[in-house]
Amino acid sequence: MSKLFATLSLLMVSPWLYAGSVRISPVQVDFVDQDKSASIMLSNESTNPNNLQIRVFKWVQDTSGVDQLQPTNDIAVSPSIVNMQPNGVNNIRLVRLNNSSVQSEQAYRIIIDELPKPIDSRKISNGLQVLVRSSLPLFIVNSKNISDLQAQLVSQDNKSFVQIENTGSRHILLQELSVVDKSTNQKYKININTVNGYLLSGTSKQFEILDPTASTQVLNNKTNVRIELKSNGKDLSF
Q: What is the CA angle 60-61-63, rounded to 5?
């Protein structure tokens, strides 16, 4: 029997979300100041049992803004393996092993993997088994940390980009991004989603302007364009 992972990067669009037949709440975990523990609730909303593995990884971004997950012992998970009964509910406890204050935000990812169901060799295979992987952000933050950013147009190898730099001590989450020609009010939108929209503290990322109607002449005239974006729910322009 073949197995396939479907990965979901989960975001603050509602207080809960679905990953296959499992409902997860909340969709983001925050440890503020010296908070010691937190929890997430998993609800199996199907009539079949479901086995899950829960792990926490350190979340960093390289100089190009690409996500990287690293093993960590900073957060303990209990239980880390869950056998969810049909229509059952399980609470997962997350515990900081060092609850001292942090100077700037630390980022992690909670990875929830659906484990393959046992195969009965007496039965004919029913084909592809899709396994869901869910990814939730977890942040350890000082209550005095703030988010801030800078944006500018840059050109490289005959391509144009909007470069966003997170100059604050908290993450930013881009929800919308576009470049506007101030002379015509023409707007060139850039695709932003829950995968590429995060910028962790102290990182920068370039977003290529792929709109075929955006001429090089317009984009090179930086005094005649405006960058508009929505970050953490706030509208900003540069």
A: 140
Torsion on CA atoms 175, 40, 84, 98, rounded to nearest 10: 120
Rounded Cα distance between 102 and 198, Å, is 20
How many CB atoms are closer than 10 A to CB 159?
13
Query: By C-alpha distance, which of 223, 144, 140 is closest to 181?
Result: 223
Residue where a domain stops, chosen among 125, 141, 157: 141
Q: Are strands 129-141 and 29-32 parallel, antiparallel or unpaired?
A: parallel
Domain count within the chain: 2
Separation CA 29–CA 9 (nearest Å): 14
**What is the per-residue pLDDT across 84-120, written as a single tens digit (0 to 9) for each?**
999 999 999 999 998 888 999 999 999 999 888 766 5
Question: Does 162 lie in the same domain as 116?
Answer: no
Q: What's the residue count for the chain?
A: 238
Q: Please give the model's pTM, rounded to 2 decimal places.
A: 0.84
If asked whether residues 99 and 216 sit together in one domain, one would say no
